[in-house]
Amino acid sequence: MEFKDVSPSSQSEEQLRFLVQEKIAEGETDIPSERALESALGISRTTLRRSLDVLEKEAVVQKRNRKGMQINAKQTINILKMNSMSSQLPGKQTISVVSNEVVNGDVEASSFLKLDATQPLFKLIRLREVSGRPFSFEISYLNIRRFKGIETIDFNNESLYQILEERYNTKPTYGREELRFKPACEVLASYLKVPLDTALFEVVSKAFEEHDEPIEYSKQYLIGDQIKYKINAQHIFDYLEDE
């Protein structure tokens, strides 16, 4: 087996990421000076600056005019990454169920899930908070006949994708997302604690498993000034639209 030691810059990047996560969890945005970081991490100024440059390009930290570096307070989500939002966000998260019920078909969701509009759907609405602040209002639709008993599961502080994988042996492998702005209506403004008509991200997600079988249709509403999206995809030319 062949291996090699982790380079000082890679090691310091990981240490800095851990520091950033700790600061976010504590509700802080300031990071120590370069001199303090040098001493704490035991690395050279050159290595430290190289690591900070990497984190700045990834928008983890940002420069302030004549005031050093600051943690970027906006949360970053990879729009093409097929894992739960819980695993992408740092800081302490709270996920509260607003409602879960069996409903007659929503036109868009039923069409995606290949169901007749009269067939029942499981509808799950949840509010996500990060570090004590409202972050997203999330609505998910699933085929209740496929996921029998799902309406009895307690989804408070639970990952939907993890439950689908562990209980139903179903794992999303790819998805399609539509991203647009939407002004906050009274319901969204109330739950997200923002003024009426605040600009929100509306993300319509369609999750599939292997062999193009649809799993989940969802809509997420996120506060515009708390979130930034990035695209970090591999094998992009393997993705082809069906004819």
From TrEMBL:
Q: Where are the transmembrane segments?
A: none
Gene3D superfamilies according to UniProt = Chorismate lyase-like, Winged helix-like DNA-binding domain superfamily/Winged helix DNA-binding domain
Please name the GO terms of the biological process aspect recorded for this protein, alphabetically: negative regulation of DNA-templated transcription
Q: What region holds the HTH gntR-type domain? A: 6-74
User: By its UniProt entry, which SMART domains does this protein fall under?
Assistant: HTH_GNTR, UTRA
Mind telling me what this protein is named? GntR family transcriptional regulator
Alphabetized, the UniProt keywords read:
DNA-binding, Transcription, Transcription regulation
Domain of life, per UniProt, equals Bacteria
What InterPro entries would the database entry show? Bact_HTH_transcr_reg, Chorismate_lyase_/UTRA_dom_sf, Tscrpt_reg_HTH_GntR, UTRA, WH-like_DNA-bd_sf, WH_DNA-bd_sf
Q: Name one GO molecular function term.
A: DNA binding
